[in-house]
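Researcher: Let's walk through a ligand-bound prediction step by step. First, I give you the protein sequence. Second, the SMILES string for guanosine-5'-triphosphate. Third, you return the three-dimensional complex as structure tokens. Ready?
Model: Ready.
Researcher: Here are steps one and two:
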Amino acid sequence: MVLAELGGSISRALARMSSATVVDENVLRECLNEIARALMQADVRFKMVCDLQANIKKSVNLEALAAGTNKRRVIETAVGKELCKMLDPGKPAFVPKKGKPNVVMFVGLQGSGKTTTCTKYAHYHQRKGFKPSLVCADTFRAGAFDQLKQNATKAKIPFYGSYMESDPVKIAVEGLEKFRQEKSDLIIIDTSGRHMQEAALFEEMRQVAEATKPDLVIFVMDGSIGQAAFDQAQAFKQSASVGAVIITKMDGHAKGGGALSAVAATKSPVIFIGTGEHIDEFDVFNVEPFVGRLLGRGDLPGLLDKMESIVPADQQSELVAKLAEGAFTLRLMYEQFQNLLKMGPMGQIFSMLPGFSSELMPKGQEKQSKEKIKRYMTIMDSMTAAELDSKNPKLMTESRILRVARGSGRQVKDVTDMLEEYKRLAKMWSKLNVSKLIPPNGKMSDQAIQKMLKAMPPQVVQQMGGKSAFEALVKQMGGKDMSKMLAGMKGGA
Ligand SMILES: Nc1nc2c(ncn2[C@@H]2O[C@H](COP(=O)(O)OP(=O)(O)OP(=O)(O)O)[C@@H](O)[C@H]2O)c(=O)[nH]1
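Model: Step three, the predicted complex:
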């Protein structure tokens, strides 16, 4: 996503400033100009950029700083604070409470990703123990109910809608009644997508809101719309009391600047971002870690949370135990591949590591790696359980290799490549000696870090910024939760 480029430009501007022998007003001006250019390229509104520049200049008085003060740190802190201020409207969004009949209404332009996002939002809360339900009050677009029905069925979420009824207010009220009776504690109402010009549809949105009295109105906005974001968000704010924003399609060509504009226009916080079409491609949005990532400071708590959502805490020790036994089987490799695919774009992971940027992941390479992983998994799908659970690669005789290749519709070379990858990973894990590497308190010794580095494929170490960056990272993590890291670690497939 282009937002990563914004992060890269901002951290480069700050880095260039720190390499200057003397940090004076000129250097500060040059640095702020560079940041302003980067923000404007990311579609942030001109006025917001000017305000940001002026506020930083006001808060940083270089001459008044005591000798010996780290000027770069002062400037970096001021930039971070201003970026946070732009994204934080100062009042938190309504948070649904379990066991209460929370009503949340979704609004947004046609095609913004509203229906998809309703299901993602429901699914997210379902995993947190809520009992969500979906009401389709979109009678404008033919097929809207079918789409919601399909999404809801896949996610096993109860839904309500009608093919016959044309009054969205009636459907919304009926759905609300039904799910209140069924004790749903999160009733989500999807409304018609509208074009900006359609005053009638804005009126309809107002009526649905009046009849259902939602606790929260969420405005869904396509992240790639650029400068138009401010006006669009403002139009919605004027017709409905928008209380939170979700920005979608942040995986594509979204420049991200629109997110800042939407916050300014609605005076409501961004609570989630959509990062793909799949139901799980949905991330909680927190201002400080986000700005931290833009400034290259990383987001370690976010990274660990992500790891935990992929490999639940209760399964982590099981995985580490298996690795500690030296029992690295093809099935374990398959599970690691699954975790990797769930982890999302590597570039995104990199941006969560302090000092790293998602630009580290060469474009194109990521797609190739993913395709390779999927290819290997298809091959493994054609193997028997005994083969997957065995530690003996000799089980894969020539005739079995031929059979698996045929069964998976792949070339023999693909199967042998996959087996080579397995052997390489098995060797790496046995060299690592996991039980010694991670003692019960989770803290890794310097020696253990060195050992891990030696066993890791050089290209992975290089991708992570080299040896010293990796050492610094492990130390920053305080050696804690290394099992989470191991659970998701790949061997450079
Ligand atoms: N890449 C990507 N695609 C998304 C995301 N969110 C939604 N989409 C896609 O965007 C398209 C439009 O999504 P919908 O959910 O149908 O949009 P909508 O706003 O409900 O549309 P209307 O019902 O016409 O208002 C679909 O193809 C979705 O799969 C996202 O975060 N990333």
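Researcher: And what stands out?
Model: The CA atoms of residues 113 and 133 lie 18 Å apart. The domain at 300-488 is CATH 1.10.260.30 (434 Repressor (Amino-terminal Domain)).
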